[in-house]
User: Fold this.
Amino acid sequence: MDQHRILGMALSFMPGMNASFVRHMQEAGVSVEEFFSSGQQELSARLDVRITPILDRMTRDEALFKARNEAGFMERHGIVSRSLTDEDYPARLSDIDRAPVTLYCLGSADLDPDRIMSIVGTRHATAYGMRYVAGLVEDMASYFPGMTIVSGLALGIDSAAHEAALKFGLPTVAVVAHGLNTIYPAQNRDLARRIIAAGGAIVSEYPSGVPPYRSRFLERNRIVATMTDAVLVVESAEKGGAMSTAAVASSYGRELIALPGRIGDEMSAGCNRLIRSQKALMAGGAADIMAMLGWQPEAVAVASRQRDLFPELIGRQKLIYDALRQTPEPMPVDAVRERTGIPIRDLIADLGEMEFDGIVERLPGNRFVLIAY
Assistant:
């Protein structure tokens, strides 16, 4: 590995080192090579700081030793580092005050594409959320064949976003909360392999051997929120990782978009609150999101169609739609018949057609609930 990269990586092994200090070094004209080779007194003078443990020679030597060991692991496994002192550090991430000093990357994805969007949400995704993600990514891929989808490799919405990107030929980046010697959750190891094989990447700010503690997922979320142009939240309870990501995105001026859901649905409560409080724009189809972001389409596939979250229904289906919309609870078919007055034979036929079109979902007990509205 290039010596400059090892030195840049060594900064991240130093206790107390952060992006602000690295930027201060750069502004003072102290290169990373000079930081590790100069004496304490010289560094103190050039950086205009007191002699602190961060300038201690033994501390610096120990960090350099750890970085060299990590470099050996990285070379054996095809991992590359991108530190704040490197020219190829992701530009969108480099400006935030809590930028990781070093990123570890497994895979070949471009982390500075022209267009990049994060999609996050609950691990307990519903059919509504999963269907929306797949449809949106398909349509976005037809408009922007080279855009990148970022998420966190968690189960639920994160996995749906990565899977959709793979299915429709978009590079996807998974930001994880542990060292790249493992993959968490274990159920997504095959997904991680497919992401890398398809030209995507697995990214972490942690060196090998660092386990996935709870606090590290919250730290990881700031990367998902800021290495991107926009963050789309698809289903989230009032509290959770997706809401943490949304808060960070908003605080750093990233465009925040949320998918609305039925009032009373626990997994839409967070999204509805973001929209209600005007912290997030309301998600629609791909064309709506393009307009929000000011993106001009590169290409449009002939087969691509705009998916409408608010279907224009007529006749009996409009009556059924309005009846189901009155309550967040699944409605038995007899209750739908009572509210609409539609003969049972016609009602069953219409519900079957609406289920096929992805408007309603049939649940056990012959109960129905809206998927998109």
About this structure: The radius of gyration is 24 Å. Residues 301-307 have pLDDT under 50 and may be disordered. The first strand starts at residue 79 and ends at 83. DSSP finds 16 helices and twelve strands in the chain.
